[in-house]
Design brief:
Blueprint: E1 7-10, H1 18-24, E2 29-34, H2 42-55, E3 60-63, E4 65-67, E5 70-71, H3 84-92, H4 101-123, E6 128-129, H5 153-170, E7 176-179, H6 200-205, H7 209-213, E8 220-223, H8 240-250, E9 256-261, E10 269-270, E11 273-274, H9 277-287, E12 291-293, H10 300-303, H11 307-322, H12 329-336, H13 347-350, H14 354-362
Parallel strand pairs: 1-2, 1-12, 2-3, 3-6, 7-8, 8-9, 9-12
Antiparallel strand pairs: 4-5, 10-11
Helix pairs in contact: 3-4, 4-5, 4-14, 9-11
Length: 364
C-alpha cells in the first residue's frame, strides 16, 4: 500500500498532551498547524516543535504567518512584518532615483521580509508558513484586504516571487493562496460560501495568472473555498476541474496542494448538501488535494476537545479500507518535499548572522 499521510491537524495548548501525541503518531497524520494559542515565548515554541519532531521527524510543522494582521508570533523578538499591501504601495512610489525605483525597492524589501520571516520561524523549529497570498486586492474583500500585495497580477507575481526568494534563502518552502483567487468576492469563506460568477477566461486572465507565471517557483498551493459556477458547481478545493485540469494541467503546477481548513463555512456544503469532516476530506483528496487541514478542533471549551479530529482519522481509515479513497505515494513525496533540507541556526546564532541583520534593515 502506498504511503500517504494527508491530515494536517491542530493542538490545543502550549505543550503536547497525551492525546496530542497519540494523534500525531497516527499514520494518516502528516503535520500540525500552530496558532497564537500555541505561543507563549520563543523557548516554549522551540520546545513544542522539538517535542513534535521527537515523535516523528517527517511531521510538517506549519503556521499562518504572513505579516500584518496574520502573524501568529509577535513578541519575544519576532519581527513585526508589514501587511503585504505595504510592499505593493512601495512599488507604486517612485523615489528620487528615477522611474522604477519604487518597484525595485519593493522587490528588495519583499525578499528581506521573506528571509526574516523564514529565518525566525525556522530558528524556533517551524517548517512552513502558508504564504504568500496571491489574491488580488479589489478593495472589497473582508477577509483578504491588506493581505494582498496589489490589484495588478503582474505586481503580485513579482513581489510574491521576491518574497519566496527570501524564504528559499532561509531554507523554507512556500504556499501560494487562495487559488484561483479569493480577492474578488466580498464574502468571507470562514463564515459564508462565497460565489464568484465571472467567466473562466476572466479569472485566468487576472486572478489565476500568478499561478501560471510562478509555476517553477511555487512549492505548494492552497485553493479557495469559493464557488465559481461558470467553471464548476463545486468550490475550487473540491473541484478536479480546478485542481487537476486547470492548476496542474493548464497552468503547469507540480507541487503540493493543501485544502484550506475543512471547518470553514465554505467547506461545509458540497453540491448543496451538508458534509461531515470525513466526507469533506475525501472529496478534497479525490479532487486532487494532497493534504487536508482540519483546524481549531482541539479547543476543549468550544468544539469537544478534538473529537472531530478523532472522527476524521477514524472516518478516513474506514474510507481507505472500503476503497472510497486511495492513498497516493506521490502526494506524500510532495509533502516531504516541503520539509527543510538544511539545519536552521539557533535564534542566538541568527542574531549574529550578517545576512539576517542586513535583511532586517530592509523590512519596512
Amino acid at each position: 500500500m502506498a504511503q500517504h499521510a494527508p491530515l494536517i491537524i491542530d493542538i490545543a495548548a502550549l505543550s503536547l498532551s497525551k492525546i496530542d501525541r497519540q494523534r500525531l503518531m497516527h499514520p494518516l497524520v502528516g503535520g500540525v498547524i500552530l496558532f497564537g494559542r500555541n505561543w507563549q515565548d520563543r523557548q516554549q515554541l522551540t520546545r513544542l516543535c522539538r517535542d513534535i519532531k521527537a515523535l516523528r521527524r517527517d511531521l510538517l510543522i506549519c503556521v499562518d504567518h504572513e505579516g500584518g494582521r496574520v502573524q501568529r508570533f509577535r513578541t519575544d523578538g519576532f519581527t513585526h512584518l508589514p501587511p503585504m499591501r505595504a510592499l505593493g504601495e512601495m512599488w507604486l512610489r517612485d523615489g528620487k532615483e528615477g522611474a522604477g525605483s519604487g518597484a525595485l525597492r519593493a522587490s528588495n524589501a519583499a525578499t528581506a521580509c521573506g528571509f526574516v520571516l523564514g529565518s525566525e520561524l525556522r530558528a524556533c523549529g517551524v517548517d512552513l508558513s502558508f504564504t504568500p497570498v496571491l489574491d488580488l486586492d479589489y478593495g472589497g474583500s473582508s477577509v483578504i484586504g491588506d493581505r494582498a500585495f496589489a490589484r495588478d497580477p503582474r505586481v503580485v507575481s513579482v513581489l510574491a516571487k521576491s518574497l519566496m526568494h527570501g524564504l528559499l534563502q532561509s531554507g523554507m518552502a512556500n504556499c501560494g493562496k487562495h487559488f484561483p483567487g479569493h480577492g474578488f468576492v466580498k464574502a468571507d469563506s470562514h463564515t459564508d460560501i462565497p460565489v464568484d460568477r465571472r467567466s473562466l477566461k476572466a479569472i485566468l486572465a487576472d486572478d489565476a495568472a500568478p499561478y501560471g507565471w510562478l509555476n517553477t517557483t511555487l512549492s505548494s498551493v492552497m485553493p479557495a473555498h469559493v464557488i465559481y459556477p461558470k467553471v464548476d458547481s463545486r468550490a475550487a478545493g473540491f473541484s478536479t476541474r480546478w485542481l487537476n485540469d486547470i492548476l496542474r494541467g493548464q497552468l503547469g503546477f507540480g507541487g503540493a496542494i493543501f485544502s484550506d481548513d475543512l471547518s470553514m463555512a465554505g467547506a461545509r456544503l458540497l453540491d448543496g448538501k451538508p458534509l461531515t469532516y470525513t466526507q469533506a476530506a475525501i472529496a478534497a483528496l479525490n479532487a486532487g488535494c494532497d493534504m487536508v487541514l482540519l483546524c481549531n478542533q482541539t479547543l476543549v471549551d468550544s468544539v469537544g476537545g478534538g473529537l472531530a479530529v478523532d472522527a476524521l482519522m477514524a472516518g478516513l481509515t474506514e474510507a481507505l479500507l472500503k476503497g472510497h479513497w486511495q492513498p497516493h505515494e506521490v502526494s506524500d513525496e510532495r509533502r516531504r518535499a516541503l520539509l527543510p533540507r538544511s539545519p536552521a541556526p539557533a535564534w542566538d546564532d541568527l542574531m549574529l548572522q550578517r545576512d539576517y541583520m542586513h535583511a532586517l534593515d530592509w523590512v519596512p
